[in-house]
Amino acid sequence: MKVAMYLTCIVFLSQMPKKRITGSCTGSCWYANKMIITSFNDARLSDTIVDVYRVVDGENIVFEFNNKIEYGSETNTETFLFEVKDGIESFEIKDKEILKTNCLYYTLGGAGMDFPDSSDFHISKGSLIGKKQPDGIWQVKVDVIVEKRKVSFEHVFKQCQ
């Protein structure tokens, strides 16, 4: 039974868009003139809706944070994305206002795969704070609750190449 489930996962993931699995750039960065498109796929795996996102041309700034987490011999990748209006020099977005940022978080990897469910696209508790530096680098602090999991980090984002 476990082997069949893992094979189903492998086949399913091999058909997912590459963006969904690997992220879009090495490390973490921000994109100019982009936006996040999210959609809910009808495919179900263990009663979890598989969410798909794409970063496409738009009029916003998109921040993408990718982080590898090691658990013994296994490695998971966590991805956190959100968008803000272009042309701003700073932002402080709290609680339900986060819904307007298309914010999403998920982890993938290791022996088990932790797919996001529909609530991961509806992060509405916490804060996103950022300030653009004169050299174009953004200093961002994230402190949100995703379901019952606290996601908190500070990161310097350079522009994606």
Please count the helical segments. Answer: 2
Which oligomeric form is depicted?
single chain
Element-level helix/strand string: HHEEEEEEEEE
Distance between the termini: 44 Å
Helix share of residues?
10-25%
* Domain count: 1
Number of strands: 9
Query: What is the mean predicted local confidence, pLDDT?
Result: 74
What portion of the residues fall into strands of 2 or more residues?
A: over 45%
- Uncertain regions: pLDDT < 50 for 5+ in a row? 1-26, 115-120
Class inferred from helices and paired strands? mainly beta
Shape: globular
Question: Can you put this structure into words, describing what you see?
Answer:
- By secondary structure, this protein is mainly beta.
- It is 11% helix and 55% strand.
- The chain has two helices and nine strands; from the N terminus they run H-H-E-E-E-E-E-E-E-E-E.
- Strand 8 (138-146) and strand 9 form a beta hairpin.
- Mean pLDDT is 74; it is low at 1-26 and 115-120.
Quick tags:
9 strands; globular; 161 residues
Quick rundown:
Helices cover 11% and strands 55% of the residues. It is mainly beta and 161 residues long. The chain has one domain.
